[in-house]
Design brief:
With 267 residues, the chain is mostly beta strands. It has helices spanning 3-12, 106-112, 116-124, 129-132, 200-209, and strands at residues 17-20, 33-40, 43-50, 57-64, 69-76, 79-88, 91-97, 141-143, 146-150, 162-169, 175-183, 186-191, 194-198, 219-223, 226-235, 238-251, 265-266. The chain is globular and about 60 Å long.
């Protein structure tokens, strides 16, 4: 790994990079290199943690200084992992790109992170390239990893509408929805030790194997439900958005990447 070259490429987007050895504090479940965002007295920085004694092959495929984004390739033997590194609103972020997507530029990486429904919606609206990655356009609104698509056809029983509901993936900080309506999904039991949730049978096995597990602060939640939101959506790291009328909630495709398979859509 050419550390000097990587430092230069990250500096071109206005970011700092620190490279370290094996550590338990890593992001993503596998591979020879993990990426995360850390913070010191000088602010946020990217941390690249080498998880192997073998020097990994790491290359920057594309740098967009004006957009403050770059596309990183990590090769582990015959396996490739790609990460979009950049700045969104107030903070730096790292997003794993699904391996099935043929991506070689920052623009292609952004498109690969959009669910099919989002790409279809922007195609129907005939959005030009420069409009497709705005956080607000004619097809959708976006806040962080969440997309909100207008659903004017939705009919809702107002008695089932919930207020001030969290929207989260895994153990991350939740986004808060002013009005929320859910359909379908899988019931799971969630606690700090199992942030992605356990099915009823998995939950019973855990309790049977460890009587103390009943005191782990479990919550019953819905995994991968259909979620609709109306009104304000708040998050500490993002500007509050206001959605007039019901919008369908969709998460980006990052969880389809191998590096992020330990993260689930929990609501």
């Amino acid at each position: 790994m050419n550390e000097s070259n990587l430092l230069d490429k990250f500096a071109r987007i206005g970011a700092r990079l620190k490279v370290g050895g094996p550590s338990a504090r890593t992001r993503g479940g596998g591979g020879v290199l993990s990426l995360d965002i850390r913070e010191d007295r000088d602010g946020e920085y990217f941390e690249a943690t080498v998880r192997s004694e073998v020097d990994p092959e790491v290359a920057v495929l594309d740098v967009q200084p004006a957009d403050r984004h770059l596309l990183l390739l990590v090769r582990d033997g015959g396996e490739k992992q790609k990460f979009l590194c950049g700045h969104d609103e107030r903070h730096w972020f790292v997003a794993a790109i699904p391996e099935a997507a043929p991506v070689g530029t920052v623009r292609q990486a952004k498109e690969a992170l959009k669910p099919d429904e989002v790409r279809i919606a922007q195609g129907r609206r005939g959005l030009r390239a420069e409009a497709r990655n705005r956080r607000k356009n004619a097809a959708y609104r976006r806040q962080g990893e969440w997309f909100f698509l207008p659903a004017p056809e939705l009919r809702v029983d107002e008695s089932l509408v919930l207020r001030n509901e969290p929207l989260r993936r895994g153990a991350g900080k939740p986004h808060w929805m002013e009005h929320c309506y859910r359909t379908g999904g899988e019931t799971v039991h969630v606690c700090r030790r199992h942030p992605n949730g356990l099915t009823a049978s998995e939950y019973r096995r855990v309790l049977a194997g460890n009587p103390k597990a009943s005191k782990w602060g479990w919550q019953v939640m819905r995994r991968n439900p259909g979620v609709y939101v109306r009104g304000s959506v708040r998050h500490a790291d993002h500007k509050t958005i206001v959605l007039h009328g019901w919008h369908r909630v969709l998460m980006n495709t990052e969880t389809q990447a191998k590096a992020m398979r330990n993260v689930a859509f929990l609501d």
